Amino acid sequence: xxxxxxxxxxxxxxxxxxxxxxxxxxxxxxxxxxxxxxxxxxxxxxxxxxxxxxxxxxxxxxxxxxxxxxxxxxxxxxxxxxxxxxxxxxxxxxxxxxxxxxxxxxxxxxxxxxxxxxxxxxxxxxxxxxxxxxxxxxxxxxxxxxxxxxxxxxxxxxxxxxxxxxxxxxxxxxxxxxxxxxxxxxxxxxxxxxxxx
Length: 197
Description:
Blueprint: H1 14-21, E1 26-31, H2 38-51, E2 56-60, H3 61-65, H4 76-95, E3 99-103, H5 109-119, E4 124-129, H6 133-139, H7 144-149, E5 171-173, H8 180-196
Parallel strand pairs: 1-3, 1-4, 2-3, 4-5
Helix pairs in contact: 2-8, 4-5
């Protein structure tokens, strides 16, 4: 914290918000290659949670880059700053008592670990959406792999920029093999375990 910054404390705490909302906050962090199915899973999970009365918010890479992080490119330093800002936003939403679903390629272990430390390991569920590069390329939902292969996009994760696989994620979903319903069931089990702990 800077020399002239003094943290303000308010009477309504995260604990009081948990009582009001009748839930515990948690950050579900979906990581994986572009096209692996992160956003699809987050969207379906949020719909499921909403139908059960949970209060949620979904953060998505493209949506964040269209607003809050539109000043950032895709260099290594900009990617690190992108994830850092997202972590801070997620922390604020968790302080509001929400279940936060974040879908970001987040290719570097150090960046993901930084988020875990920021929000607390006990509040962080890392979900690795494990899908082979060739399947992601076949899907190429946004046409990005084609552009990367043509050299029109530089430093694209999986093509000319690395993706560091999570070593001990809370959950691995093989999106090219598992049905969406089965994946959501696995996610709900993890979240229920967290909420009851």
